[in-house]
Specification:
The chain is of the alpha+beta class. It has 3 helices and 4 strands, in the order H-E-E-E-H-E-H. The strands form 2 sheets. A two-stranded antiparallel ribbon has the order 1-4. The chain has a two-stranded antiparallel sheet with strand order 2-3. The longest helix has 9 residues, at 80-88. It is globular, with a radius of gyration of 15 Å.
Length: 99
């Protein structure tokens, strides 16, 4: 869904050289990026925060490009072998986001 995208060769190389198993593409957040997610630090971990998880009285904060500067493009890069291992180890801990 991103016709202007180009392949980030450094990211691809890092995945191929097994430097990391997973990457999420982000971009600078703009005022029109109000429905997607952003990254936050929560309990010493980086987490994805989607607008559906934000209390109604805090949505203006969430939409702020000054408070949240990054926007999740929903483009994910992952090594399938690593994903297979996580599934086989039953090590998936996903939040349910009611939207």
């Amino acid at each position: 869904d991103n016709l202007g995208a180009t392949v980030n060769v450094a990211l691809l190389k890092g995945l191929m050289e097994e430097k990391y198993d997973y990457a999420m593409e982000l971009t600078d957040k703009t005022p029109s990026d109000v429905k997607g997610g952003t990254l936050i630090q929560y309990r010493e971990k980086i987490r994805l925060l989607e607008i559906a998880q934000v209390p109604p009285d805090r949505t203006d904060d969430f939409k702020s490009v000054k408070k949240f500067k990054l926007f999740n493009t929903n483009n994910l890069w992952m090594k399938l072998a690593s994903l297979k291992q996580v599934v086989e180890d039953n090590n998936i801990n996903l939040d349910i986001i009611v939207n």
